[in-house]
Amino acid sequence: MNLFTKAAELGIQTEFFDGQGQRHVTPPEALHIVLDAMPARSTHRLLDRIAVVRAGEEAAADLSDAAVLPVAWKIVAGDACLAEGTTQQRRVVWPSHLPVGSYRLHLADAGGHTEEAPLLVAPSTAFRGEFDRSWIIAVQLYGLRSSRNWGIGDFTDLARLIEMAAGWGAGGIGLNPLHALFDDRPGDCSPYSPNSRMFLNPLYIDVEQLPEFKLADLPGAAEAIATLRGDELIDYPAVAELKWRALRSAHAAFRATPTSGRRAAFEAFRRERAPLLTRFACFEALRHQFAKPWWEWPDEWQHPEDLRCAQLRDGPDGVEIEFIEYVQWCADDQLRACHDLAAERGMDVGLYLDVAVGVQSDGFDAWNEQVAISRQLSVGAPPDQLNSAGQNWGLAGFNAAGLELTGFASFREMLRAAMRYAGAIRLDHVLGLNRLYLVPHGYAADSGVYVQMPFEALLAVTAQESVANRCVVIGEDLGTVPEGFRERLAAWGVWSYRVMMFERDFHQGWFFGVDHYLPEALVTFNTHDLATYSGWRASTDLKFKHSVGIDPGESDDARRYAFAMLADVLRRQGIEQEDIYAVLTFLARTRSRLLAISLEDLLGVIDQPNVPGTVFQHPNWRRRLPRAVDEIASAINQQALLAATSERRSAVKTVAG
To answer: Which CA distances in Å does 253 have to 156, 250, 260, 282, 325?
Structure first.
């Protein structure tokens, strides 16, 4: 069997047309790496796809032509058989009484062939939310400035912003990913390149809120903090050094004189998050000890093993492992407090959290889930109008065969971690649920392949977790969107993500009117990867990209034409101004149930948080807001903001969950 035939059998698309209409064929040597990185796939002789049952629909599946009738089937949960039967037909009807959950399906045909596959029973749709038309403030948490933080925004700053936004009638706060990064690589600060999506970034902890911590126990800290607070950009190495020292001091005090309540709460957290928390803490301790990628560790540690991790925690490394668990407990506790505060203030969305599309290959998630995550392949995107060379994000993503083999456990755990304190989450690059563009390590971004994913099964798991956690799911569906993709997301109750910058007629360039926007969607003017409104109006983004040799994908004339088109669509709504509040007034009138308003836009910030395709040329993820949290209210036009969002603030909560 040649490479391309094998690839086709595994759902790997080796030939495609990119966003610019150019044909690409994957080089054979690159394809070889892709195939080697995939686990052996379960055979599907009897069923050609994973069995998915949705509430309200017929619980049935079609057998393949290869199945020799009759076929005996059995539905299993753990060691228990829930139902069984035999069919003489090509269409099998499963029992309709199965509760929502994940099961194993055992099949055997008359030809002696046996097969085992997941059976997913899902709600009819994901959780729809309990608000009509709401709005949120979107902010990069690290960029919040205050008179008390340590040079980086923290959870206490978030709590203050929640109080303020609730007073304006906002339904919640939207945040950048809060995923755990690498404590010993603080300069690698992109929130979209995590060590783990299961745990939190401890730099967001307000150390001074920990009962065990005393600033006097940290010599020279007060002076260092004052310097960090005054910096325009976040000095991640200095912030990390100071905060980790403070956290170790707090942990030492916690161990020396723990109050019964604090210790009991900590132990409860350890039990609740076990065994994943123990594995994460052991991984971090081992990573520091071996100082090399996990695939170069001693053989006994190249794969997670709970018994071995328990032994490590009970041995000489126990204090270090407890420290890592303690830090995660502190972060979890402070984020939970923000979640609770939003609920107390009547916010109908609460926290809206972002979920990165992949993880660093040398991080915890890739070590913990080596079957479902392929470390040799990077998620990216083929060439398109904005990125003519394509994109390689340097992140390891899920693979279809591994997800099926593991019963989608890692995908489910990722969703649960994200939804833990969120009323809504955004799945970055949701197109990856249908197919992922994967680039082998060492190859250019235009040498990748599209790999088909178990789309329906992933949507079923998403709906299961969304309903269980009462969390709205929004899919970032930007880019080259396959035909029918958005419709399938909508059918499962996954919302669309509509960016006004892109909602324009392809040929004429005019902006779509308010009626164009779908109800089940989040609407916003821009994203963290695009120009702020002030930067867009000043064409700062175009000038910067030209200065560093990046194709901006738009000419100066095209930008000026966009200004005219924006003025035109606003006039058609009777909006005479063209400032950010005029744009927000327009967006607030759309039917979309959630509007995200960037805090950078309200403050008139010119520079965008991130410029894709840059590393050292731009201070990505380092820019701090120009005003402290307590100064924001006086720095923005509150009257204009309240007027723009008035319809949404007065909306009655009528939508059922």
So the answer is: 22, 5, 14, 22, 15
DSSP per-residue codes, 85-136: EEESSSEEE--TTPPSEEEEEEEEETTS-EEEEEEEEE-SS----S-SSEEE
Among 553, 526, 540, which residue's Cα sits nearest to residue 607?
Answer: 540
Nearest of 215, 210, 138 to residue 176 by alpha carbon: 138
DSSP state of 40: P
Q: Are strands 594-598 and 134-139 parallel, antiparallel or unpaired?
A: parallel
If you ran DSSP here, which 8-state letter would residue 625 be given? P
pLDDT score, position 641: 97
Query: Per-residue pLDDT for 654 more than 60?
Result: no
Specify the pTM: 0.95
The proportion of the chain whose per-residue pLDDT surpasses 90, expressed as a percent, equals 82
Rounded Cα distance, 51 and 457, in Å: 8
Rg (CA), the chain: 26
The residue behind tokens 């939207």 is 174
pLDDT reading at 1 higher than 60: no
Burial group, residue 78, by CB count within 10 angstroms (0-12, 13-18, 19+): exposed
* Interval 634-654 mean pLDDT: 80
Report residue 247 as tokens: 């956290």
Amino acid in position 88: Q
Beta bridge partners of 436: 451
Contact 242, 205 (CB under 8 A): no
Six token digits for residue 435: 């197919």
Q: Quote the tokens at residue 238.
A: 């200095």
DSSP string, 164-206: HHHHHT--EEEE---EE--TT-TT---TTS-SEEEEE-GGGS-
What's the pLDDT tens digit per position in 64-123?
999 999 999 999 999 999 999 999 999 999 988 899 999 999 999 999 999 998 999 999
Q: How far apart are CA 394 and CA 442, in angstroms?
A: 11
Tokens matching residue 386:
């904005």
Two tokens at 433?
């649920």
User: What order do you get walking across the sheet with 377-381 strand by strand?
Assistant: 12-13, 449-452, 435-440, 377-381, 391-395
**Rounded-to-integer distance, Cα 257 and Cα 587, Å:** 54
HSE-CB of 621 using CA atoms within 13 angstroms: 17
Q: What is the DSSP-derived secondary structure letter of residue 549? A: T
